[in-house]
Design brief:
single chain; alpha/beta; TIM Barrel; 7-stranded parallel β-sheet; 8 helices; 7 strands
């Protein structure tokens, strides 16, 4: 099991990074990415602290990945912030997509894709041209287990299948109860319209790209 989107106390999560790691270790995870919400005001602070624990845990399993979720940033500014986060050591860059349950600025999805994000989280009613561009740029589209964000999972899967976009199934965990077992993640994927075989292939591709 690999989860590439969760939050610690460095943004709006409930747990310190060490407890996140211990809890997913107990669930048998191969890797966990802590991707706290950032904008221009806090990305340095978040990455500096996540990289401290990344350094301490680098030889332990599951693998701990230090990342960010660029969140509610004006679309024009997203590409440069992606670059700045990578310069500071972010191993994975997620961008908070145009979910239907929050007032995300229109244009965020396309800006994240053009800017070279690794994952476009909960991209809402993403357009076909954006999905095709995600394929071209190698950006993974997220199937979310989080309440509200998951409402458009079926739409995302439908277009991803049509155009061959890469998918990832993430918890977007903020609380201890949000972390998924592998069995639950399978249900999230199948509930969105994927077959068991397709979910297993997603895990294979995610492992190949990010581990």
């Amino acid at each position: 099991m690999i989860d590439l989107h969760c939050h610690s106390v460095y943004s709006d999560g409930e747990l310190i990074p060490g407890e996140i790691w211990q809890r997913v270790k107990n669930l048998g995870y191969e890797a966990i990415a802590i991707t706290d919400h950032v904008d221009h005001s806090n990305y340095e602070y978040v990455l500096r602290n996540l990289l401290k624990i990344k350094d301490k845990y680098q030889f332990l399993k599951p693998r701990l990945i230090a990342g960010v979720e660029i969140t509610h940033v004006y679309p024009e500014f997203i590409p440069d912030l992606i670059k700045e986060c990578r310069k500071l050591g972010a191993e994975i860059v997620v961008v908070h997509g145009e979910t239907v349950v929050e007032p995300v600025a229109e244009g965020t999805n396309i800006s994240a894709i053009l800017g070279g994000a690794d994952i476009l989280a909960h991209p809402g009613l993403i357009k076909e041209e954006e999905v095709k561009l995600a394929v071209e740029k190698g950006v993974f589209l997220e199937i979310s287990a989080r309440k509200g964000h998951c409402l458009t999972n079926g739409h995302v899967v439908k277009l991803a299948k049509k155009w061959g976009a890469q998918l990832v199934i993430n918890s977007d965990a903020h609380s201890p109860s949000d972390f998924m077992t592998k069995e639950h993640a399978l249900k999230v994927g199948m509930g969105a319209g994927l077959t068991r075989k397709e979910v297993e292939e997603i895990w294979t591709q995610v492992k190949k790209r990010f581990l």
